[in-house]
Amino acid sequence: MLFKGNYHGASFAELLQVDYPHLMPQFASQLPASSDVSIPHGTTVLAFKFAEGVVVAGDRLATEGHRVASRDVEKVFETDSHSLMAISGAAGPCIEMARLLGVELEHYEKIEGEALELDGKANRLSNLIRQNLPAAMQGLVVVPLYAGYDLRRNVGRLWKFDITGGRYEEAEFEATGSGGLYARESLKNHCDAGMDRDAAIAAAVRALTDAADEDRATGGIDLQRGIYSIIKVCTETGIETAPESEIDTLYRALLAERSGGND
Amino acid sequence: MSMPFYVSPEQVMADKAEFARKGIARGKSNLALEFGGGILLIAENSTGLNKIGEIYDRIAFAGVGKFSEFDQLRKIGVRFADTKGYSYSRDDVRGKGLANAYSQVIGDAFTRDPKPLEVEMIIAEVGDLRLAGHENNSIYKVMYDGFISDHHGWAVIGGNEEDAEAVLRSEYAEGAPMGDAVHLGRKALERGTGGSSSLGAENLEVCVLDQSLPVRKFRRLSTDEVRGLLDG
User: Fold this and answer.
1) In chain B, what residues touch A107 (CB-CB under 8 Å)?
2) Which domains does chain B possess?
3) Residues of B in contact with A7 (CB under 8 A)
4) Is pTM beyond 0.90 here?
């Protein structure tokens, strides 16, 4: 490992490109153009605003074609104290990108002595996605959601991305992945920007359940195995992970409501 | 053709050392001090240019001397640590390896370059009680010529080191609360500057490696927080 390199800026990704190119994740060159290798994929993730900030949530299932690759994968990552990235797409590159973004944000903060603005963080993620374009063209698509609390404007904000690194700020909510459409429908009906934290968690449980109901590649809450969705809340004070017991209670109430109150 | 004058290696080294020492002594002191909940880093500094910085989860940097030089070294340390943590694991980034790397670079510059680096630094690493074998605190000091030493309890760099050290030697107590450590640190810094000046919160830069924080244990204390600790 070099101690004195040639790069003098504040970006960790650029540092890797200049001084440690072998450490920069490059997925494109490692796969033939038409690959029939099966790779785990993540499915439904969502983000929406509520009164105090944003909620970011995701199911736990990873699939390889029609098979289950993992039942308890985590798709929501804390990239720093006030921002979250939720991943859908090819699991390997997605997870690596979340890890790289986490180091990128921390690195900038340490070098410059001040954290990036939330806009700047989203822009860095755009950059990383753009660099992954060759791999995306081969099928290794990374299309994350990025959300956080903007400490300058005192408001929660969220973005979606396309494979070219295009960045689109959303006003209320967004969901991506194979079950994203159904989660969006659910959020459209049950989500409003003025709700409090508890109502927001309930809306997240409902949206994930609706997505899992319609999309076979999305894993619902698995009471039998005790596997719960990951739901994280980001507000001015930082990030909180909703406890499993709370999700359990909300999910059972939802089931009871759907079976006509007889359960 | 003119012949260069012969100067003995001893003379070259002595001159360089004197030059570096003078540069460093002009600055103010900076010190690291273990307390019950971690390691306190405290420097006399009324400017916005930081002399103490975060390197990695459990590692902090404190520098004295020429700002441009030690700040450059701080950044090199951050790049080294982040790259190592990214390619191995976060727990593989250790203060000892970093202090050794600094010692090499500064030592090389001292022998090779016409002008030595006018810097001294402290690399402090707080222990993590959850990791077997990583429980203990470490404090390393690296001098302008690359000389490296490890310290228990406390270490001082810059300014009038001996006077500040005398205070710490007689008054340092293991496991003291953070408030006491801030008081003692300030006293040592005051003695280091001749004992005449009285340092308020606005003249101090105070950071801690706080054992109770989850991952990144470095925290910079605000002026108000320091004032609260000094008044309390």
Assistant:
1) 78-79, 82
2) 27-231 (3.60.20.10)
3) 79
4) yes
